[in-house]
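Researcher: Quick test of sequence recovery. Tokens follow.
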């Protein structure tokens, strides 16, 4: 059901974890498969210097978190806010089982929440 790339990212996530004293946090969830995703951002001069995620969920949600982090690290907040779930699926090798598309959307939503949270400060 999953591509090799998704399985690889699920098994060896480089961005899994937590950041102490983050500049922004984004937390989202979906009821479809009970995924909960929390992301932590370290922001310096408008650039995402570090990003970590904690995701409790299915394999697709974890792989999507990993792909999203990879895409936005070292990007400006403006660039990062333009990331779509399509970019995330592309980063995952271009294939996402249709029933799991909502899991890749989760990555994008968590990121947007975190940016929103940061801009409110
Ligand atoms: Zn899921």
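Model:
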């Amino acid at each position: 059901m999953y591509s090799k790339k998704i399985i690889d990212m699920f098994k060896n996530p480089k961005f899994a974890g937590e950041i102490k004293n983050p500049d922004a946090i984004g937390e989202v969830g979906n009821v479809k498969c009970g995924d909960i995703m929390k992301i932590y951002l370290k922001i310096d001069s408008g650039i995402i210097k570090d990003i970590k995620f904690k995701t409790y969920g299915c394999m697709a949600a974890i792989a999507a978190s990993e792909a999203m982090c990879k895409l936005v690290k070292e990007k400006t907040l403006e660039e990062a806010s333009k990331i779509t779930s399509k970019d995330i699926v592309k980063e995952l090798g271009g294939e996402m089982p249709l029933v799991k598309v909502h899991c890749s959307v989760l990555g994008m939503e968590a990121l947007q929440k975190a940016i929103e949270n940061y801009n409110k400060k």
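The first strand starts at residue 24 and ends at 29.
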